[in-house]
Amino acid sequence: MLKRENIRIRDPFIYTDYANQCYYMYGTTALEPHSLDAQNTFSVYRSRDLEYFEEPKTIFDGGKIGFWADRDFWAPEVHKYNGKYYLFGSCKADGQCRATHIFVCDTPDGEFVPLTEEPITPRDWDCLDGTFWVEDGIPYIVFSHEWTQIKNGEIWAMPLSNDLRQAVGEPFLLFRASDNPEVSELDGREGTYVTDGPFLYFENGRLHMTWSSFYQGRYLVLQAESDSLRGNWTHSGSRFDFDGGHAMLFQRLDGKRMISLHRPNIADFERPFFREY
């Protein structure tokens, strides 16, 4: 077994399996030493208590099937929808834009396969950190249009078909990174602002989002809320005073709501962090 504090992971995503009374932890795990670069696999860790985890299990290896992307397999999320498990993960290859691809499996820790040949995000956009949301019965992907291409990073949404295989409408803008006054320029690069890791949840009749960016060099979890995806988004700052982010929320087996993120945001030292939220 592995202790939580000994697992190097970025963007930890927890799926709670009530039937089997366990948790599955996904995230950016194929990391190169001393770097944020990653190889071309997705893995999962299984735990009963969120403190001790079984050895990781590879659930997708791009090299085995000649997958279009060959590096930087980042930030996988797994969502159960219509009886199947869908993994939304970011990928990259030379000469191609970073993108979110959707994979599918019958179990949360089985062998995932690409749902389609092409990624789901717009092919000529640098995109990452796609997440899943259903509103008024319509499935959406919500994702980051990356600062590497547009400088002021953005969060977009796009409606999908019921089988998640294709877009059924044009993507639409939710907000830009600089809309939140708690966000500062990246490393002093003028006009450059980051949007990372959107995650959506509904509370008190309002749609809420956690997402991440930087403020004076510190990675942090930010808040946004709206009446709906297409509504007017308002912003607030981080509840935490440490360097860490790319968060999501999950229910513990005892029903308590938790936040999951990695901290600190320093290569080699990133660890999963969980706290009631």
Features of this protein?
single chain; 277 residues; mainly beta; Tachylectin-2, Chain A; four-stranded antiparallel sheet; 1 helix; globular
Task: Give the helices and strands, then pairings.
Elements: E1 2-3, E2 10-17, E3 22-28, E4 41-47, E5 52-53, E6 57-61, E7 71-81, E8 84-93, E9 96-105, E10 113-114, E11 127-135, E12 138-145, H1 147-150, E13 154-159, E14 172-176, E15 196-203, E16 206-215, E17 218-226, E18 234-236, E19 245-251, E20 257-263, E21 271-276
Antiparallel strand pairs: 1-5, 2-3, 3-4, 4-6, 7-8, 8-9, 9-10, 11-12, 12-13, 13-14, 15-16, 16-17, 17-18, 19-20, 20-21
Tell me what you see in this structure.
The chain has 277 residues and is an all-beta fold. The protein has one domain: Glycosyl hydrolase domain, family 43 (Tachylectin-2, Chain A), CATH 2.115.10. 1% of the residues lie in helices and 51% in strands. The chain has 1 helix and 21 strands. It has one helix at residues 147-150, and strands spanning 2-3, 10-17, 22-28, 41-47, 52-53, 57-61, 71-81, 84-93, 96-105, 113-114, 127-135, 138-145, 154-159, 172-176, 196-203, 206-215, 218-226, 234-236, 245-251, 257-263, 271-276. It has a 4-stranded antiparallel beta sheet, with no helix packed on it. The protein has a 4-stranded antiparallel beta sheet with strand order 7-8-9-10, with no helix packed on it. Strands 11-12-13-14 form a 4-stranded antiparallel beta sheet. It is globular.
